[in-house]
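Q: Can someone sanity-check these two? First one:
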Amino acid sequence: MGNETPARVTGYYVVFPYIPEDSMENNPYMRNIAKNEDWPLLATASPRDMYEGTIKMFMDYAATSLEHMEHLEQTKGETRTFENTVEPLLHDEYEVNYAFQTLLLKMVTDWSDTHNNMINADMHHVTIMWARDMFEKLTAPAFQAAIKEMYDKKDGLDEWQLRLLEWYILELKANGHDRQDEKTRKILGSWNRFIDQYRSKYITNVMATNDQHKFVLQDKSALADAPPHILQTLAADQSKWETGPWVGYMAPRRIFALMQYCGDRQIRAGAWEKWISKASFEHDFYNNSINIEELRHNNEGMAKVLGYTSTSEHRLANKMATSPETVRSMIQALERRVRPVFMDRMDAWRNYVHNNHLMSGDLYPHDLFYVCRKEAFAHYDVNHLDLMNYFPFWPTFENVTSVIGQLFNLTFKDITNTNLERAHPDAKIFAVADTSSGHHLGRLYVDPYDRQNKLCDWTTLLGRTESKERGLDKLVYLVGAASAPANGQPSLLHYEQLQRLLFHVGRSVQMLLSRAPYRDIAVPWAPFHASDWDSLDMFPTFCQFFLNKPNLLQAIASPHIKTGAQLHDDTAESTSLALSRASLFETYRTLFWSDFDLTLFEMEDRRQKFWLDLYRELHKEYFPWRLQRNDYQPCSFMPIFSRVPHYSGYYSKLWSEMLALDIHETFRLEGDESKTGERLKTLLLNKGAGDVAKELYRRFQGRDPSVGPICDFYDPPPFEEHQRLEENFS
């Protein structure tokens, strides 16, 4: 626990873990999985059966893994094959992963204990246990020697087995598990221990300041154009989300909802001031400044022991970008194009505010979240609330899958009425097939609506991979957070929810199309060092950009539920342009934080620059307003500092957009959607993480990624917007 060791130790207490008495005989959830039954018990298995059963399966797997490592150690010199070294573990891992992912689905959608803190604690502990047990094998010298020997010989290995061994080797090397000398292992252990310690302190300090400040809105006029899902997010009482009051406090989901939709400038300014000073010099006990420097110091030390010059070089070694230099080139190319656009747009935002008498004085960050969105829709005369009437959930879902089906030769068949168990009656189940090959890809479980005992926001889980030897197909779970139908009206999607739907349908299709037989290489999972997860969101982001293509936006829209009118050409064009325009401020902020993240961790010696000095320098370079006196936002910037493997990885959002828009441009230039879609599917998506992403992308494009399309997206060439409108109208 990190407590100080007493000067004189007189004895120890050994506390053994609680071991559930569950087994296949008395636990239906475990029995269902062990007998390779077709579908999980989402309704009839109790939460207790699912949780205790999964914990017991973890423990059984850990014991099996330990015994297998001992066997490998005792039989040194014997011939090692994939079948006698790796397969015994993969057999049990399949069942454990299936149980764990299905448990997560149940916990976030239909758990009996609705107290969020309790569920989060349970999820945290079970996730830590899963991660520890799954990757303990990589620390065993006998297992390391065996997989290296097999990988070097390559005898009798197919491409998937070879890639899995390569993935294991990359992961254990990146973590230093291959270092066997006692001195190096002690040094690495020390670095890791301090990294965990200061990361925990950083997170604890941020969480401790979440509830210190609340901003209450009593008058709905302050949220005049907020869509239902924003009102529900901010509601103090979920049963009274339409009438209020509404509360913003220091948690990301609420604070950014408040920033975007609250019309009261004073409240926005107050909330933003508290947000950017969280866990900083404004808090004596919860100041994260020293924790940032300690995280830099210890990660730098670990990277150098592993043979890297900096934390960035270590983190990016196995990513698609491959090096800090590549990421720097992308950031600089975007900065050259986007910064002038941002500065010009500042004038447009000032004019909009002045002409509409919204506020006086200059604009600041707490204004831009609100003004950027408002100005974009006013500029193109788009009513974002009325737009929702074109997008009822299930018709939109069917249209989205129809478009994806046409692009990639897929079919989605509703099989909900085949008596398969569902955690909630709102859920639907679809069988997905590839019409080109006739191959059944798997089944997609969709739980669409937000509700009181539903814990998470939008997410997608790979329930299980296909197993021919077990006779089981692939299962993917898509969990949505759309507003539930009410008063006889269907669930209508706001454009923000529509973006999330497109992203997660894209993620689901990505998982379904992967032919990898092993979970670890099904897709490039984050946060593993061995995975090039900067490419993970490429295809989901490609689908998300359907909204920015007028013809695709029309294809996924339904007739207006009140008037029955179709989404008109000029409305689709204006909407696509408005959505692009509305995203500029957030994209520019992402560019800033990507630069800060990379610069902070690519230093070979952290003492070259204190984090706050770097933050102030970059802020002055990027933004036209003066930094607020108490702006210490890195002290609470969890997306960077709370996730150690993600250091220097904040660029991945822009990288995914670059890849996605590059693919869209290829579709446009080739002009044969079916042919291009089939090539993307077979050369890239079917491979999952079966090869490095950079090589897969080259096979599809015949070249490296181009930064041109993303630059053109945020900085259109002269007259392009006008030409696009003219072409559409003609």
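And here is the second, same format, sequence then tokens:
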Amino acid sequence: FLALKIANVNWQSNLNQAAHHTADYSSTDTILRRGQAFSITLNLRTTVRSGYHLTFVASTGPSPDESQQTKAVFNLSEEGATGWSATQEPSEPGCMNFKILSPANAIIGRYKLKLQTVSGNKVSSTLLGQFVLLFNPWCPSDDVYMANEEERQEYVLNDSGIIFQGLEKYIQQEAWNYGQFEEDILDISLAILDRSLNHRQDPAADVANRSDPVYVSRVVSAMVNSNDEKGVVEGRWSETYCSGTNPLQWSGSVTILRQWYRGRYKPVRYGQCWVFAGVMCTVLRSLGIPTRVVTNFNSAHDRNVNLSIDKYIDTSGKTLHFTEDSVWNFHVWNESWFIRRDLGSFYDGWQVLDATPQERSKGIYQCGPASTRAIKEGDVNLDYDSSFVFAAVNADYVTWIHYSNKRRERIYSDTKKIGKFISTKAVGTNSRVDITANYKYPEGSLKERKVYKKALKLLGVRSTGKRTKIRRRRRRPSAARRPNAMPPARPSISGKLSLDAPPVIGQDICLFLVLRNLNADFKTVKVKLRASAVLYTRKPKAEILQLSRSIKLGAEEVKEISFKISHCQYKNSLRDDRKILVTALCETKQGASLLVEKDVVLQDPFLTIKVLGAAVVHEAVDVQVTFTNPLSEVVTGCVLRAEGSGLLREQLRIDVARMAPMESSTVQFEITPYKSGTRQLQVDLVCAHFSDIKGFVMLDVAPA
């Protein structure tokens, strides 16, 4: 150096980490948030002379350029053209203190910071170091600003959470380890951006767009699935996962992201919707975008975007695949919080993002961000993919019988089935919060009807008066009869399927069908019962039971039919999952047919987790897990797995060699917490004989 001889640079790690809320990152990098000043100290070898001029240069990306905001040149005590600035602070002799401020709309990513010294006509430049710049929900001028501190703690800093699954009438909690602060995870999140199709096509333009959370979140929604860009997770919805991991066996994002990164970006097999959502939540939180995981029960997948889901069955009650429309028991996506400069301030706030590869958007499997305000108001023409999300929570559900002579009978139309109990984890607790009102007005209200008609009009779909819709484009041949279909006749009987007791893996399932004659006419009801093992998408995997009964009903008589699904009937079909769809097609000579359906989810057997002592940072503590073989047969080859951010640096695996019929077993292992605060420990018993048995416990870890 001519004027400055620098011995070393102190990046004031403790001071900056505390101020920028980045102390939790397990990284040696300097991690900062935009729109907020950070401090650095230059320790000098010699006394500072006068007559020199200091200029800072911050740059990011492969081709830094001031015109694209990827390079900022700013003089001391002057704000640069890009909004960066530096001021000198009081200091001890032999050192110089500076505060450097990035603008609230700075590009996020990995930066180099250089100092240029000009003395006379001589210029010297030195690299002061590198830092990572993130979005800043604490900065009021940042697009991702979130005013409530408790919400920032939850949606940015909480590294574990709950993903809701199951059925609308049987909602289950599943623990998930987001682990956004674990070692390598921020590096992996930045690598995800650099591996994107946008970056490969034009690296400079891609980096220049990384100031915008709309852009960044949409890129991540495409990269978390592997369909177009060799992204992180490969989806599979079948019962064969032998070439990878059953999606039900994942308990967190860290293992998945590390496997992708360490495996040279080979997609990780396999994921389903909650896996994609969990991984995307990790990536977006690590980059500083407030994000949560949301579950929609009875979620419509409307392939032809006509706001109607058509289900076809044959005369035995078997589902026919005439259409690619479907209704999933639940679907999991994400919401991220930021403003929408592209749409206007009315659409600021929570934005839906969905990394599950269902439909292409602008040629790529990506979805969102779609403003929840746009969805609620029926503004289905707005970017991005608001029509797809609107259908997921608002479509009609129409059931048809298809007869052997190709005649179709519309037997049921339900305008309220889709989009129930839209759920997310509460701020600060593991309880469920219902956010359905963020997506739609109350079902059947005048406002809801008005919004629905508005959406139909914007989509180019017209109504036939009974909320039956027809696209202007030519429909599939399978639905060709639908425009002229008469409204369904009312059945002369009613029915309901119920469980005798909560069903448990390894035990028989006892059900009963209650039929009621709705008028004074004597009638004979032909009942065709069917039970199928299904995925959560309601796609059948295997037939379990099929039987027929003939029931005589007197005037307004009620009868109960009991039947049983034995363990031996379902055990080979439910090794990967625990879901059964039971249907009863009831036909009479008078009146319309009646279809009664019930989703059955087998409950987890007994599993408890006990922490045997106080949890303190850097002190070992024992954990005891007790579980029971639910089967009346010997099982072998089980594995107990445990993970939890701040508790275990890598997933723990313990072999459970043999379990006798109905035997309870106890496994004890040791954890050494390395972070304080409330921590989540997840435990998963994996066995080829039955589906996973999972549990979790929350620990309050004291500082060392």
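A (reply): Looked at the second one. The radius of gyration is 29 Å. Residues 549 and 585 are 11 Å apart (CA to CA).
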